[in-house]
Design a protein that fits this description.
This protein is an alpha+beta fold and about 230 residues long. It has three helices and 13 strands, in the order H-H-H-E-E-E-E-E-E-E-E-E-E-E-E-E. The longest helix has about 40 residues, at about 55-95.
């Protein structure tokens, strides 16, 4: 007997769910005016019009045009929403491949991992003479001097093997780095960029892909190079 009651109760609940779903669907359908509904209403309007005062053709054409335009805009919006979702998905996929790579960012520090070459770039707006790189540790002690000589204007790439001036391999970590040289007879500092590990990425609707390093967050479009 209990099985019959349980079965009947289950069937009753299922019927309620079906009726509720059916009602919601019907309400949604009733709130939507399709193209077929529009032309049906237009046909009814024409059938009940006063023969002595028929509907104006221009007005009818305007109504049809307005409805067609509204429906077209609605369809276009749906396609744009789909395109936006697809672009966001592609951006997320692109962003996920950046984690673990290195971004060339403007910085006055350089990272040595204890094994691989540390790389960067010096930016010279004009020709420079006696260009010199100076690398110091966290205590401010000069550990390495690299002479690059005379260089023409542009971005000059450099590498550091992580060794001090005596050829000893230094501990891994972050070191300060600077570049100075003579520009038009004046001793000047040069802006620098070094490669930083990409730790994570975010997707921001307004700013696009945001790359996070220990230097901070930067937009992907502002990164000079990724290696």
């Amino acid at each position: 007997m209990s099985n019959d009651i349980s079965s009947a109760s289950s069937s009753y609940m299922d019927s309620l769910r079906w009726n509720q779903s059916s009602t919601q669907t019907t309400e949604e359908d009733n709130n939507t005016l399709s193209q077929e509904d529009f032309f049906s209403l237009l046909t009814q309007q024409l059938s009940f019009q006063d023969p002595s005062n028929p509907a104006d053709n221009d007005q009818m054409i305007a109504q049809m045009t307005n409805f067609t335009m509204a429906e077209g805009i609605s369809n276009l919006n749906e396609k744009f929403d789909s395109l936006t979702a697809s672009m966001t998905s592609n951006s997320a996929l692109q962003a996920s491949t950046l984690v673990g790579k290195q971004a060339l960012l403007e910085s006055d520090t350089i990272d040595f991992d204890g094994e691989n070459l540390a790389k960067g770039s010096v930016v010279a707006e004009t020709a420079v003479e006696s260009l010199t790189l100076r690398i110091t540790d966290s205590s401010g002690q000069l550990v390495r001097t690299i002479e690059l000589g005379s260089q023409s204007a542009g971005a000059l790439r450099f590498e550091w093997d992580g060794k001090d001036n005596d050829g000893n391999v230094l501990p891994e970590g972050e070191y300060d780095i600077s570049a100075e040289g003579f520009v038009n007879g004046d001793y000047s500092s040069m802006p620098m960029a070094t490669f930083k590990n990409i730790e994570s990425v975010n997707i921001n609707g307004a700013s696009g892909i945001i790359v996070n390093t220990k230097e901070g967050a930067v937009r992907l479009t502002d990164i000079a190079e990724i290696a």
